[in-house]
């Protein structure tokens, strides 16, 4: 069991390690409502205190943890595959940005109001071919979107298969879904999904269901209705500047350090730290300055325990 959280300044990452360099010092900060000692070289102490502590906490914000979970899980599911991820519309944009930050290849297919019974245009076929022509080395294409009935994912999967001559293994993934997906009439669309994210990502699921991310993050292009899809409709959205600003900010956020720890590891590290402290002194007055525990806000971040195996508290 690792005993230390070590900060690596070269890669700006926090890693668990069974030992640490002798010259390293520890800085204690609060995360998930826990006191955590982080070991680092003395030269980076000031930088860690003034910049990275705030950044690390922001990186573990609940919505960001959900996004990180989806991206990490997708990369795990398709590990070893030559995979291209396809974001359908604007809903999966945060997962798209996170996947890119982790080194994955992702494109966006911009089309709206997609129904199984709809007929696609010739220009949409051209659009799909142009999007995919640079990725002929891939073996797997994975389409992702929030799902209501999942008709959109079902239809686009079929379109890509036919346009590419069934060259690729094409799968679809639901990043959250509404109650519509559970209806009997949508059972075939649900069955066609390779993976469904729901209970593991409650905050992201709600943000996508309410379309709050679309309102707050903006759009790059205006909606292009599927049945009337044309190159002329590929216009810049009025919120594209806000979108690009958010994209840049999130890219920086996603590259910040993130802990990958189980709850048991987190608790053991905290107990090891607390047991290492000298006893608190009490000279009979109300001066608490000599108590060794310091002043750390334990209520700012609550412990995060998901339902999936391993009970991980950070990225997955």
Draw up the topology in text.
Elements lengths: L3 E5 L4 E5 L7 E7 L2 E7 L4 H15 L2 H16 L5 E6 L4 H9 L4 E4 L12 H11 L7 E8 L3 H13 L5 E9 L9 H5 L3 E3 L4 H8 L2 H6 L22 H15 L8 H14 L40
Parallel strand pairs: 1-4, 5-6, 5-7, 7-8, 8-9
Antiparallel strand pairs: 1-2, 3-4
Helix pairs in contact: 2-3, 3-9
Structure description:
- The protein has helices at residues 45-59, 62-77, 93-101, 122-132, 151-163, 187-191, 202-209, 212-217, 240-254, 263-276; strands at 4-8, 13-17, 25-31, 34-40, 83-88, 106-109, 140-147, 169-177, 195-197.
- The chain folds into 2 domains: 1-60 and 258-316, no CATH class; 64-254, Rossmann fold (3-Layer(aba) Sandwich).
- Helix 2 packs across helix 3 and helix 3 packs across helix 9.
- Helix 5 (151-163) links the parallel strand 7 and strand 8 (169-177).
- Mean pLDDT is 82; it is low at 284-316.
- The protein is built from 10 helices and 9 strands.
- The chain is elongated.
- A 5-stranded parallel sheet has the order 6-5-7-8-9. Strands 2-1-4-3 form a 4-stranded mixed sheet, with helices on both faces.
- The two termini are 18 Å apart.
- The protein is α/β, with parallel strands linked by helices and 316 residues long.
- It is 35% helix and 17% strand.
**Total strand count, please?**
9
Unreliable segments of 5+ consecutive residues:
284-316
Mass-distribution shape: elongated
Chain oligomer state? single chain
Computed over alpha carbons, the radius of gyration is 23 Å
Brief synopsis:
With 316 residues, this protein is α/β, with parallel strands linked by helices. It contains 10 helices and 9 strands. Helices cover 35% and strands 17% of the residues.
């Amino acid at each position: 069991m690792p005993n230390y959280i070590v900060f690596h300044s070269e890669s700006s990452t926090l890693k668990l390690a069974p030992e640490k360099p002798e010259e390293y010092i520890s800085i204690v900060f609060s995360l998930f409502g826990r006191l955590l000692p982080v070991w680092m070289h003395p030269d980076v102490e000031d930088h860690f205190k003034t910049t990275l502590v705030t950044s690390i906490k922001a990186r573990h914000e609940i919505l960001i943890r959900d996004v990180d979970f989806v991206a990490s899980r997708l990369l795990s599911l398709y590990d070893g595959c030559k995979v291209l991820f396809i974001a359908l519309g604007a809903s999966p944009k945060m997962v798209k940005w996170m996947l890119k930050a982790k080194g994955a290849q992702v494109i966006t297919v911009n089309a709206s109001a997609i129904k199984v019974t709809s007929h696609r245009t010739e220009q949409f076929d051209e659009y799909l071919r142009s999007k995919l022509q640079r990725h002929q080395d891939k073996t797997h294409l994975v389409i992702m979107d929030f799902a209501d009935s999942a008709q959109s994912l079902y239809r686009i999967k079929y379109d890509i298969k036919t346009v590419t001559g069934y060259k690729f293994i094409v799968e679809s993934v639901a990043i959250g879904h509404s109650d519509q997906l559970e209806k009997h009439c949508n059972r075939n669309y649900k069955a066609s999904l390779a993976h469904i994210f729901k209970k593991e990502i409650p905050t992201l699921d709600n943000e996508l269901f309410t379309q709050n991310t679309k309102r707050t993050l903006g759009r790059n292009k205006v909606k292009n209705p599927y049945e009337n899809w044309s190159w002329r409709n590929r216009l810049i959205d009025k919120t594209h500047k806000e979108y690009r600003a958010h994209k840049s900010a999130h890219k920086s956020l996603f590259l910040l350090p993130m802990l990958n720890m189980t709850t048991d590891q987190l608790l053991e590290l905290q107990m090891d730290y607390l047991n290492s402290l000298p006893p608190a002194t009490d000279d009979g007055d109300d001066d608490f300055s000599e108590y060794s525990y310091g002043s750390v806000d334990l209520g700012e971040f609550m412990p995060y325990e998901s339902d999936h195996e391993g009970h991980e508290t950070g990225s997955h």
